[in-house]
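chain below, 271 aa
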Amino acid sequence: MPITSRIITLTTDFGLQDGYVASMKGVMLSLAPDSRLVDVTHEIPAQDVMSAAFVLKSAYRYFPEGTVHLAVVDPGVGSSRHAIALEHEGHMFVGPDNGLFSLVLGDQVPPSVVLLDQVAAWRPAPVSSTFHGRDIFAPVAARLASGLPLEDVGTRTDGFKRMSWALPISDPEGIRGWVVHIDRFGNCITNITRRELEQHRDGRGVKCYAGNTVVSHVVSTYSDVSDGEPVMLINSEELLEVAVHGGSAERLLGLHRGAPVNILFTEDVVA
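prediction:
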């Protein structure tokens, strides 16, 4: 029997000013009234698949095994793009086949991926060509949360779309990375991991060139520097983050997603 927690998480770019999210929740509660619906976010920038992929990767692992993660950021809705569901590390993921699950999977191959071609698992016709979130993805997520196996909602496939995100470039002198996400506080999260930084740093000092400023050391938390001062730290996802204590690094340092962040190692020895 499949493991099920009856939890369904939702990640979308729909916002809450319209009825889209409520419609999806209504469909799921009609099919699985005992399910628990958890909003991850509905504030993904419109049609920004990579932003959704980052948020989903950051959140999913903290839910119990058997959780169904429904993600709908779908610029290709109604086109020839496929609808898929897959299993990964005891979790289920449902959404469009547009690379949305790439960061969750990394370089791993999921044990099972299915194309959502079983019409009986969808909402009854007519199915909207512009709202697969309500008519395909939501009912499938509800059925999976109720214990239906993947094989009953689709046909197995080995092919699905992956997106690649840029990896840092390292040499003995330093690391070149990029801002991959900016949170609501204006903290700029890079693609440089703690492991990569410490491995190449080898006890040396660090200078970080980011936007219009240079940060000269890594600290443990925001308040280790004065109010309004730029800071460089390892965040809760083990990624290097550039922030401003009490302010927005995005605004004050002129940073944006995709902006380069250059780490230069110095001869200063760090205790």
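The domain at 7-156 is CATH 3.40.50.10790 (Rossmann fold). The chain has a mean pLDDT of 94.
thats it, cya
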